[in-house]
Amino acid sequence: MRVWIDQDLCTGDGLCVDHCPDVFVQLEDGIAYVAENGGPLNDPGGSGSLANVSIRNVADVIHAAEACPGECIFIEIDRPLGTVEDLDDEAAA
Questions:
Q1: Domain count, the chain
Q2: In degrees rounded to 5, what are phi and psi of residue 69?
Q3: CA–CA separation, 80 vs 12, rounded Å?
Q4: Which terminus of the chain is more solvent-facing, meaning fewer CB atoms within 10 Å of its CB: N or C?
C-alpha cells in the first residue's frame, strides 16, 4: 500500500500525524506531508510523493484518511501477487 497527500486540500489539522506519525509529518508551513524514514518526501502532491506503508501502519493510515477533514489523503493499494490478473498475464505469455 502507498499513500500521498494533496497539499492543496490539506487543512493543517494534523489528525493524520496523530493517527500515524511514522507516515505523516507536519512541516513549518502547517501542511501535512507523507514521509519515509523520518523525512518528508520532496515532491508534495505528485506521484513522486507516494510513501510506502509498512504492514504495521496500514490500519493507522486508513484511519487517518477516514478522519481527515480535508479529505486530502489518497491511498493506492498494490495488487497482491497471485491474483486472477497474474494468471491471465501468464497465460498470454
A1: 1
A2: -70, -25
A3: 33
A4: C
Euclidean distance between CA atoms 79 and 82, whole angstroms: 9
- State the CB neighbour count (10 A cutoff) for residue 36: 15
Q: What is the pTM of this model?
A: 0.78
**Three cell numbers written together for 60:** 493507522
Phi and psi at residue 33, to the nearest 5°:
-135, 155
- Which CATH number is 77's domain given? 3.30.70.20
Q: Which long-range contacts (CB under 8 A, 24 or more apart) does 55-58 make?
A: 57/20, 57/22, 57/23, 58/1
pLDDT digit string, tens, across residues 26-64: 998 899 999 988 788 865 555 568 899 999 999 999 999
